[in-house]
Amino acid sequence: MIQMMAMTMGSPTSDLSHLEEGLIVVDDSDKLTIARLKAELEKKSKIIVQISQLKQRLKIEHFKLEHFI
User: Fold this and answer.
1) Based on C-alpha coordinates, what's the Rg of the chain?
2) Which superkingdom (predicted)?
3) Alpha helices in 1-27 (DSSP H)
């Protein structure tokens, strides 16, 4: 990744002094952490969708009960 960025910037990879301080270099452990966090986020998103669906079903059932009583 660094090599590709350096090639686009017209500089050899050994000289990275031209890169801005704000640039984040991602190594393999960071990639694993990012993948784990993405998986957790997807799992939580699915749970939120399931909760929303259950709430909707509960509203429907509550509405049915109110109208049959």
Assistant:
1) 25
2) Eukaryota
3) 2-8
3-state secondary structure of 26: coil
The CA-based dihedral angle spanning residues 26, 27, 29, 35, taken in that order and rounded to the nearest 10 degrees: 50
What's the DSSP call for residue 69? -
Task: Name the residue ranges covered by the structural domains of the chain.
Answer: 27-69
Q: Which residue, chain included where needed, has tokens 């509550």?
A: 62
Q: What is the DSSP letter of 10?
A: T
Q: What are 57's two structure tokens?
A: 């079903």
Does residue 2 contact residue 16 with C-beta atoms inside 8 Å?
yes
- Model confidence pLDDT, tens digit, residues 44-57: 999 999 999 999 99
* Three-state secondary-structure class, residue 60: helix
